[in-house]
Amino acid sequence: MIIKKGILAFAIAWAIMAAGCQQEVDQLIEPPTGQVFTNQSDVAAIIQRVVMNDGSIDNVVDGSSCSSLQLPVTVTVNGQEITLNSASDFNTVENIIDRYGDDDDEIEFDFPITVVLADYSTVTFTNEDQFEDFVDKCTEDSEDDDIECVDFKFPLSISIYNSDNQVADVVTVKDDEEMHDFIHDLNESEFAGFAFPITVILSDGTEIIISNNDDLEDVLENSIGDCDEDDDNDHNDDDADATDLLNTLTTGQWKISYFFNDEDETVNYTGYVLTFTNDGIVKVVKGGTTITASWSVDGDDGSLELDLDFGDDDLFEELTEDWDVLEYNLQTIKLTDDSEEYLSFARP
Protein backbone atom coordinates (compact mmCIF):
# COMPACT_ATOMS: atom_id res chain seq x y z
CA MET A 1 0.00 0.00 0.00
CA ILE A 2 1.29 3.47 -0.88
CA ILE A 3 0.89 5.96 1.98
CA LYS A 4 1.25 9.71 1.75
CA LYS A 5 1.53 11.75 4.95
CA GLY A 6 -0.99 14.54 5.06
CA ILE A 7 -4.14 15.76 6.70
CA LEU A 8 -7.55 16.33 5.17
CA ALA A 9 -9.88 18.94 6.52
CA PHE A 10 -11.79 16.73 8.90
CA ALA A 11 -8.57 15.11 10.16
CA ILE A 12 -7.09 18.56 10.86
CA ALA A 13 -10.16 19.45 12.87
CA TRP A 14 -9.82 16.31 14.92
CA ALA A 15 -6.12 16.91 15.54
CA ILE A 16 -6.76 20.47 16.71
CA MET A 17 -9.45 19.27 19.06
CA ALA A 18 -7.10 16.61 20.40
CA ALA A 19 -4.34 19.13 21.12
CA GLY A 20 -6.62 21.71 22.66
CA CYS A 21 -8.62 19.67 25.14
CA GLN A 22 -8.89 16.38 26.96
CA GLN A 23 -12.40 15.38 25.98
CA GLU A 24 -13.60 11.81 26.06
CA VAL A 25 -12.75 9.84 22.90
CA ASP A 26 -16.36 9.50 21.84
CA GLN A 27 -16.70 13.29 21.95
CA LEU A 28 -13.39 13.94 20.28
CA ILE A 29 -14.02 11.89 17.16
CA GLU A 30 -17.67 12.58 16.45
CA PRO A 31 -17.61 11.86 12.68
CA PRO A 32 -19.16 14.19 10.10
CA THR A 33 -22.34 12.45 8.90
CA GLY A 34 -21.87 10.68 5.57
CA GLN A 35 -18.16 11.39 5.37
CA VAL A 36 -16.37 8.73 7.44
CA PHE A 37 -16.68 5.01 8.10
CA THR A 38 -15.25 2.32 10.38
CA ASN A 39 -14.45 -1.32 9.75
CA GLN A 40 -17.96 -2.14 11.02
CA SER A 41 -19.85 0.29 8.77
CA ASP A 42 -22.31 -0.98 6.16
CA VAL A 43 -20.53 1.04 3.50
CA ALA A 44 -17.21 -0.64 4.37
CA ALA A 45 -18.83 -4.08 3.97
CA ILE A 46 -20.22 -3.35 0.52
CA ILE A 47 -16.98 -1.73 -0.61
CA GLN A 48 -15.20 -4.97 0.31
CA ARG A 49 -17.60 -6.87 -1.95
CA VAL A 50 -16.84 -4.54 -4.88
CA VAL A 51 -13.05 -4.79 -4.55
CA MET A 52 -12.80 -8.56 -3.97
CA ASN A 53 -10.71 -10.49 -6.46
CA ASP A 54 -13.01 -11.56 -9.31
CA GLY A 55 -12.59 -15.29 -9.78
CA SER A 56 -14.97 -15.60 -12.71
CA ILE A 57 -12.73 -14.03 -15.34
CA ASP A 58 -10.99 -17.34 -16.07
CA ASN A 59 -13.86 -19.77 -15.47
CA VAL A 60 -13.53 -21.12 -18.99
CA VAL A 61 -10.17 -22.54 -17.84
CA ASP A 62 -10.49 -23.41 -14.15
CA GLY A 63 -14.27 -23.64 -13.58
CA SER A 64 -13.98 -21.83 -10.25
CA SER A 65 -15.48 -18.45 -9.33
CA CYS A 66 -13.79 -18.69 -5.93
CA SER A 67 -10.36 -17.93 -7.33
CA SER A 68 -8.40 -16.78 -10.35
CA LEU A 69 -5.28 -18.32 -11.82
CA GLN A 70 -1.95 -16.67 -11.07
CA LEU A 71 -0.40 -16.35 -14.50
CA PRO A 72 1.54 -17.60 -16.34
CA VAL A 73 -0.01 -21.07 -16.43
CA THR A 74 0.48 -23.77 -19.04
CA VAL A 75 -2.57 -25.84 -20.03
CA THR A 76 -3.34 -28.46 -22.65
CA VAL A 77 -6.74 -27.90 -24.27
CA ASN A 78 -8.05 -30.78 -26.38
CA GLY A 79 -4.46 -31.84 -27.00
CA GLN A 80 -3.15 -28.35 -27.79
CA GLU A 81 -0.64 -26.87 -25.32
CA ILE A 82 -1.06 -23.18 -24.50
CA THR A 83 0.76 -20.89 -22.11
CA LEU A 84 -1.61 -18.36 -20.57
CA ASN A 85 0.27 -15.11 -20.01
CA SER A 86 -2.63 -12.66 -19.79
CA ALA A 87 -6.43 -12.53 -19.58
CA SER A 88 -6.65 -12.25 -23.37
CA ASP A 89 -5.34 -15.82 -23.64
CA PHE A 90 -8.55 -17.12 -22.02
CA ASN A 91 -10.25 -16.31 -25.34
CA THR A 92 -7.84 -18.69 -27.07
CA VAL A 93 -8.96 -21.49 -24.77
CA GLU A 94 -12.62 -20.65 -25.42
CA ASN A 95 -12.10 -20.64 -29.17
CA ILE A 96 -10.55 -24.13 -29.05
CA ILE A 97 -13.41 -25.43 -26.91
CA ASP A 98 -16.00 -23.91 -29.25
CA ARG A 99 -14.27 -25.14 -32.40
CA TYR A 100 -16.46 -28.20 -32.61
CA GLY A 101 -19.89 -28.67 -31.13
CA ASP A 102 -19.90 -32.47 -30.81
CA ASP A 103 -16.61 -33.22 -29.01
CA ASP A 104 -15.69 -33.79 -25.37
CA ASP A 105 -13.53 -30.90 -24.21
CA GLU A 106 -10.61 -31.56 -21.87
CA ILE A 107 -8.31 -29.11 -20.11
CA GLU A 108 -5.16 -30.35 -18.35
CA PHE A 109 -2.95 -28.15 -16.15
CA ASP A 110 0.81 -28.26 -15.93
CA PHE A 111 1.18 -28.44 -12.14
CA PRO A 112 2.02 -26.84 -9.78
CA ILE A 113 -0.39 -23.94 -10.19
CA THR A 114 -1.20 -21.05 -7.85
CA VAL A 115 -4.61 -19.43 -7.51
CA VAL A 116 -5.59 -16.07 -6.02
CA LEU A 117 -8.55 -16.13 -3.62
CA ALA A 118 -11.21 -13.46 -3.13
CA ASP A 119 -9.12 -11.77 -0.40
CA TYR A 120 -6.01 -11.81 -2.64
CA SER A 121 -4.28 -14.52 -0.61
CA THR A 122 -2.85 -17.40 -2.66
CA VAL A 123 -2.98 -21.20 -2.58
CA THR A 124 -0.69 -23.53 -4.53
CA PHE A 125 -1.82 -26.93 -5.83
CA THR A 126 0.71 -29.57 -6.79
CA ASN A 127 -1.60 -32.07 -8.49
CA GLU A 128 -4.96 -32.46 -10.20
CA ASP A 129 -6.70 -34.20 -7.28
CA GLN A 130 -5.97 -31.30 -4.92
CA PHE A 131 -7.24 -28.75 -7.40
CA GLU A 132 -10.38 -30.70 -8.32
CA ASP A 133 -11.27 -31.01 -4.62
CA PHE A 134 -10.93 -27.24 -4.30
CA VAL A 135 -13.11 -26.57 -7.36
CA ASP A 136 -15.73 -29.07 -6.20
CA LYS A 137 -15.97 -27.36 -2.81
CA CYS A 138 -16.31 -24.00 -4.53
CA THR A 139 -19.15 -25.36 -6.66
CA GLU A 140 -20.89 -26.87 -3.63
CA ASP A 141 -20.68 -23.66 -1.60
CA SER A 142 -21.48 -21.64 -4.76
CA GLU A 143 -22.38 -18.43 -2.89
CA ASP A 144 -20.57 -15.56 -4.56
CA ASP A 145 -20.31 -12.34 -2.57
CA ASP A 146 -18.33 -10.21 -4.97
CA ILE A 147 -20.01 -7.38 -6.90
CA GLU A 148 -18.61 -7.12 -10.43
CA CYS A 149 -21.03 -4.67 -12.05
CA VAL A 150 -19.37 -1.53 -10.67
CA ASP A 151 -15.76 -0.41 -10.19
CA PHE A 152 -13.99 2.39 -8.42
CA LYS A 153 -12.03 4.88 -10.47
CA PHE A 154 -8.55 4.92 -8.94
CA PRO A 155 -6.47 6.37 -7.40
CA LEU A 156 -8.45 7.30 -4.28
CA SER A 157 -7.34 9.35 -1.30
CA ILE A 158 -8.61 8.25 2.11
CA SER A 159 -8.03 10.03 5.41
CA ILE A 160 -7.51 7.99 8.57
CA TYR A 161 -7.82 9.14 12.17
CA ASN A 162 -6.74 6.88 15.03
CA SER A 163 -8.57 7.69 18.26
CA ASP A 164 -5.99 5.83 20.38
CA ASN A 165 -2.89 7.79 19.40
CA GLN A 166 -4.71 10.76 17.83
CA VAL A 167 -2.65 10.50 14.62
CA ALA A 168 -4.11 11.48 11.26
CA ASP A 169 -2.80 10.27 7.90
CA VAL A 170 -3.87 10.25 4.27
CA VAL A 171 -3.67 6.98 2.35
CA THR A 172 -3.64 6.75 -1.45
CA VAL A 173 -4.92 3.48 -2.90
CA LYS A 174 -4.38 2.67 -6.55
CA ASP A 175 -6.36 -0.54 -7.20
CA ASP A 176 -8.88 -3.04 -5.85
CA GLU A 177 -6.34 -5.06 -3.91
CA GLU A 178 -5.02 -2.02 -2.04
CA MET A 179 -8.60 -0.92 -1.30
CA HIS A 180 -9.42 -4.40 0.02
CA ASP A 181 -6.31 -4.45 2.21
CA PHE A 182 -7.01 -0.96 3.52
CA ILE A 183 -10.48 -1.87 4.82
CA HIS A 184 -9.30 -5.25 6.10
CA ASP A 185 -6.51 -3.59 8.09
CA LEU A 186 -8.69 -0.90 9.70
CA ASN A 187 -8.89 -1.50 13.43
CA GLU A 188 -11.68 -0.61 15.83
CA SER A 189 -10.08 2.64 16.90
CA GLU A 190 -9.71 4.03 13.35
CA PHE A 191 -12.07 6.20 11.36
CA ALA A 192 -11.64 6.66 7.61
CA GLY A 193 -13.11 9.02 5.04
CA PHE A 194 -12.82 9.40 1.27
CA ALA A 195 -11.63 12.67 -0.19
CA PHE A 196 -14.97 13.28 -1.90
CA PRO A 197 -15.98 13.57 -4.66
CA ILE A 198 -15.01 10.14 -5.97
CA THR A 199 -16.06 8.37 -9.19
CA VAL A 200 -17.43 4.87 -9.77
CA ILE A 201 -17.86 3.19 -13.16
CA LEU A 202 -20.92 1.06 -13.97
CA SER A 203 -20.80 -2.05 -16.16
CA ASP A 204 -22.03 -0.08 -19.20
CA GLY A 205 -19.20 2.44 -18.83
CA THR A 206 -21.29 5.17 -17.19
CA GLU A 207 -19.31 7.20 -14.66
CA ILE A 208 -21.08 8.45 -11.53
CA ILE A 209 -19.64 11.11 -9.24
CA ILE A 210 -20.24 10.41 -5.54
CA SER A 211 -20.16 13.08 -2.82
CA ASN A 212 -20.93 11.14 0.39
CA ASN A 213 -21.08 7.66 1.88
CA ASP A 214 -24.86 7.35 1.73
CA ASP A 215 -24.89 7.95 -2.02
CA LEU A 216 -21.94 5.58 -2.45
CA GLU A 217 -23.72 2.79 -0.61
CA ASP A 218 -26.89 3.32 -2.67
CA VAL A 219 -25.04 3.23 -6.01
CA LEU A 220 -23.09 0.09 -5.09
CA GLU A 221 -26.21 -1.73 -3.89
CA ASN A 222 -28.19 -0.70 -6.98
CA SER A 223 -25.48 -2.11 -9.26
CA ILE A 224 -25.97 -5.65 -7.97
CA GLY A 225 -27.45 -7.75 -10.78
CA ASP A 226 -26.95 -5.07 -13.43
CA CYS A 227 -24.65 -7.30 -15.47
CA ASP A 228 -23.94 -10.96 -16.12
CA GLU A 229 -21.02 -11.80 -13.84
CA ASP A 230 -20.42 -15.17 -15.60
CA ASP A 231 -20.29 -16.95 -12.23
CA ASP A 232 -22.46 -19.77 -13.60
CA ASN A 233 -19.60 -21.02 -15.82
CA ASP A 234 -21.74 -20.40 -18.91
CA HIS A 235 -19.05 -19.00 -21.15
CA ASN A 236 -21.29 -18.60 -24.16
CA ASP A 237 -23.43 -15.76 -22.82
CA ASP A 238 -21.29 -12.73 -23.64
CA ASP A 239 -22.75 -9.59 -22.11
CA ALA A 240 -24.47 -7.80 -24.97
CA ASP A 241 -27.88 -6.67 -26.10
CA ALA A 242 -29.72 -6.99 -29.40
CA THR A 243 -28.51 -3.57 -30.55
CA ASP A 244 -24.87 -4.57 -30.18
CA LEU A 245 -25.39 -7.75 -32.19
CA LEU A 246 -27.28 -5.85 -34.88
CA ASN A 247 -24.43 -3.35 -35.19
CA THR A 248 -21.89 -6.17 -35.37
CA LEU A 249 -23.77 -8.03 -38.09
CA THR A 250 -24.24 -4.96 -40.27
CA THR A 251 -20.57 -3.95 -40.06
CA GLY A 252 -18.58 -5.43 -42.94
CA GLN A 253 -19.00 -8.81 -44.62
CA TRP A 254 -19.15 -12.37 -43.31
CA LYS A 255 -18.47 -15.91 -44.47
CA ILE A 256 -19.79 -19.24 -43.15
CA SER A 257 -16.83 -20.60 -41.21
CA TYR A 258 -18.61 -23.63 -39.74
CA PHE A 259 -21.89 -25.48 -40.24
CA PHE A 260 -22.63 -28.74 -38.48
CA ASN A 261 -25.88 -30.65 -39.10
CA ASP A 262 -25.35 -34.31 -38.15
CA GLU A 263 -22.01 -33.87 -39.88
CA ASP A 264 -19.64 -31.09 -40.86
CA GLU A 265 -21.12 -29.44 -43.98
CA THR A 266 -18.97 -26.31 -43.97
CA VAL A 267 -17.38 -27.09 -47.32
CA ASN A 268 -20.75 -26.66 -49.07
CA TYR A 269 -20.66 -22.93 -48.28
CA THR A 270 -17.07 -22.16 -49.20
CA GLY A 271 -16.69 -18.90 -51.15
CA TYR A 272 -20.04 -17.36 -50.24
CA VAL A 273 -19.91 -13.82 -48.81
CA LEU A 274 -22.80 -12.53 -46.69
CA THR A 275 -23.78 -8.89 -46.20
CA PHE A 276 -26.40 -8.00 -43.60
CA THR A 277 -28.22 -4.71 -44.15
CA ASN A 278 -30.15 -2.58 -41.67
CA ASP A 279 -33.44 -3.20 -43.48
CA GLY A 280 -33.44 -6.90 -42.55
CA ILE A 281 -32.02 -8.24 -45.80
CA VAL A 282 -28.98 -10.50 -46.11
CA LYS A 283 -27.35 -10.84 -49.52
CA VAL A 284 -25.26 -13.94 -50.21
CA VAL A 285 -22.87 -13.64 -53.14
CA LYS A 286 -20.54 -16.11 -54.85
CA GLY A 287 -19.24 -15.25 -58.29
CA GLY A 288 -22.28 -14.38 -60.40
CA THR A 289 -24.75 -15.96 -57.98
CA THR A 290 -26.72 -13.81 -55.52
CA ILE A 291 -29.17 -15.15 -52.95
CA THR A 292 -31.39 -12.83 -50.94
CA ALA A 293 -32.82 -13.75 -47.55
CA SER A 294 -34.31 -12.03 -44.50
CA TRP A 295 -32.93 -11.75 -41.01
CA SER A 296 -33.79 -10.27 -37.62
CA VAL A 297 -32.39 -10.16 -34.09
CA ASP A 298 -34.48 -10.79 -31.00
CA GLY A 299 -33.41 -10.38 -27.38
CA ASP A 300 -36.74 -9.92 -25.64
CA ASP A 301 -36.71 -13.27 -23.78
CA GLY A 302 -33.37 -12.56 -22.10
CA SER A 303 -31.27 -14.47 -24.64
CA LEU A 304 -30.22 -13.36 -28.10
CA GLU A 305 -31.61 -15.00 -31.22
CA LEU A 306 -30.68 -14.50 -34.87
CA ASP A 307 -33.59 -15.46 -37.13
CA LEU A 308 -32.65 -16.41 -40.71
CA ASP A 309 -35.06 -17.21 -43.55
CA PHE A 310 -33.63 -18.34 -46.90
CA GLY A 311 -36.94 -19.47 -48.31
CA ASP A 312 -36.82 -22.51 -50.61
CA ASP A 313 -33.21 -22.21 -51.76
CA ASP A 314 -31.92 -25.77 -52.05
CA LEU A 315 -28.58 -25.13 -50.35
CA PHE A 316 -29.33 -22.38 -47.86
CA GLU A 317 -32.72 -23.54 -46.62
CA GLU A 318 -30.83 -25.67 -44.08
CA LEU A 319 -29.73 -22.38 -42.50
CA THR A 320 -33.31 -21.16 -42.09
CA GLU A 321 -33.68 -21.26 -38.33
CA ASP A 322 -34.25 -19.24 -35.16
CA TRP A 323 -30.64 -19.51 -34.03
CA ASP A 324 -29.57 -19.04 -30.42
CA VAL A 325 -26.52 -16.80 -30.17
CA LEU A 326 -23.79 -18.60 -28.24
CA GLU A 327 -21.31 -15.77 -28.45
CA TYR A 328 -20.05 -13.07 -30.75
CA ASN A 329 -17.46 -10.36 -31.23
CA LEU A 330 -16.34 -8.21 -34.15
CA GLN A 331 -14.67 -11.20 -35.82
CA THR A 332 -16.85 -14.21 -34.99
CA ILE A 333 -20.53 -15.08 -34.46
CA LYS A 334 -21.40 -18.54 -33.11
CA LEU A 335 -24.95 -19.94 -33.20
CA THR A 336 -26.79 -23.12 -32.30
CA ASP A 337 -30.32 -24.52 -32.15
CA ASP A 338 -32.12 -27.13 -30.06
CA SER A 339 -31.35 -29.96 -32.48
CA GLU A 340 -27.56 -29.87 -32.08
CA GLU A 341 -26.92 -27.81 -35.20
CA TYR A 342 -24.09 -25.27 -35.12
CA LEU A 343 -23.46 -22.32 -37.41
CA SER A 344 -20.58 -19.85 -37.25
CA PHE A 345 -19.77 -16.70 -39.20
CA ALA A 346 -16.32 -15.15 -39.54
CA ARG A 347 -14.74 -12.38 -41.54
CA PRO A 348 -13.83 -13.38 -45.13
Q: What portion of residues is helical?
A: 10-25%
The beta-strand count equals 21
Mean pLDDT: 84
Q: What separation lies between the terminal Cα atoms?
A: 49 Å
Radius of gyration: 27 Å
What does this structure look like?
With 348 residues, this protein is an alpha+beta fold. 24% of the residues lie in helices and 31% in strands. The protein has nine helices and 21 strands. The chain has helices spanning 9-20, 25-28, 42-51, 59-62, 89-97, 128-141, 176-185, 213-223, 242-249; strands at residues 2-4, 67-69, 73-77, 80-84, 107-109, 113-117, 122-125, 150-152, 156-162, 167-173, 190-194, 198-202, 207-210, 255-260, 273-276, 281-286, 289-298, 305-309, 321-328, 332-336, 342-346. The strands form five sheets. Strands 14-21-20-19-18-17-16-15 form an eight-stranded antiparallel beta sheet. It has a four-stranded antiparallel beta sheet with strand order 1-10-9-11. A hairpin with a 2-residue loop joins β16 and β17 (289-298). α3 (42-51) packs across α8.
